[in-house]
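FAQ: What does a ligand-bound record look like?

Like this one, built around magnesium ion:
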Amino acid sequence: MSGLAAIVLAAGKGTRMKSGLPKVLHSVAGKSMLLHVLDMLRAVDVARAVVVIPPDGAAIREAVGDRAETVVQAEQLGTAHAVLQASEMLSDADQILVLCGDTPLVISDTVEALLRRHAESAAAVTLLTAIPPDCTGLGRIVRDAEGHVVSIVEEKEATPEQRCIREINTGVYCYDGRVLWRLLPGIPLGPSGEAYLTDVIAAIRAEGGRVADVVASDPAEAIGINNRIQLSVAEGVLRQRVRERLMLEGITLVDPPSTFIDADVQIGRDTVVHPGTTISGVTRIGERCVIGPGSVIADSVLGNDCRVLMSVVESSTLDDKVSMGPFCHVRAEAHLAREVHLGNFAEIKKSEVGTGTRMHHFSYLGDAKLGERVNVGAGTITCNYDGVHKWTTTIDDDVFIGSDTLLIAPVEVGRGAKTGAGSVVTRNVPPGSTVFGVPARIKNEESR
Ligand code: UD1
Ligand code: MG
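The answer part, i.e. the structure of the complex:
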């Protein structure tokens, strides 16, 4: 292999997070910080990407999936040692881009600017620096009188004067592969018991090599997450980025600060999102929808012209012109076809609901299949669970379910049938018939 390879460091202990979850798997705007970095890398033309993971890194490996290869760092002996773990895999790469799994805000434009500078300058290393408002805990960039980078000093080891330096190391670098692999094994363990990747800079200078740099135009990109305060700062920055992207794409956010939308959500133009709404996970919403106020939509697909008022939609699909709310809960792979209308207090779980079907007040559908133009009266319940098993209710096209009907599943209601108010339906209802009573029986002339 030759060309550009990337290494993402994700094997650190993350002790400052005080968490049972590996640091790089903590979420920012609904996506783990590691996946932010790996997804960003997709926009950069790297021939091979390797993530350095800890020995107990099964969850990290699973999160990485096929986005990159992984290599285990058996002992957490610092960032230089972490990079070294990929040396065999990437021994003949011309350039090595190194990123940290805990800096999720770096954008691909910046990485590309870094790579361009690296190519132009023919330096042994080009690093990305930043001048953020708060430098706490970060490595400081030491420059000589001509302004050339001489070294990076970690805060722990910095002198009081060096701590006053406002320019910091973002942890993003592009190295000449041969130089990196030659110098890295010689980086000693420091007083903290770790070998610092940052010490490679001074080693390059010591042998007369050239160090180039790019200063990030937006210092927010440099936010490295070592504790939960930094996590919350990154969350705020990323959420605002998502809001701005969506507004520029033609979506109205009536009150952006009270609207929380995850990084990978897609929304079509002229959709309006009202205050107090959260849209999360892998969700796709069409055009001209009205969402909120007060709605929660997770991992769902909505067509065009839908309306979701003060309702919760989870892992479900809504076709065009579905409207619901206030106070509905649609979940567990429910599918609502075109022009389905739900009023107040409707719960729909794992059910198919056909075009134009209406369910206006206080009802529950679970494990049900409803046809087209069904009217579900107030207080209808599919009794889908007998305490042991879940059973299916099937309701065909043009059925009228009277108020307060209980459908004891498994049961089928045939096309065009009707149930009287208060029916408890224990047996299949033939097409076109009317049933009533407890248990429901077929209404005919004699029973009048
Ligand atoms: C590091 C830099 C610092 C920079 C900051 C930017 C070093 C020595 N310091 O500090 O100059 O300002 O990032 O955010 O590099 N990791 C491993 N194996 C290890 C140790 C760490 O894979 O043995 C990984 C971590 O998972 C993390 C990354 O390397 O993703 C950086 O490690 P971290 O401990 O967060 O370093 P910082 O103190 O943030
Ligand atoms: Mg860090």
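Follow-up question: can I read anything off the structure? Yes, for example: The chain has eight helices and 40 strands.
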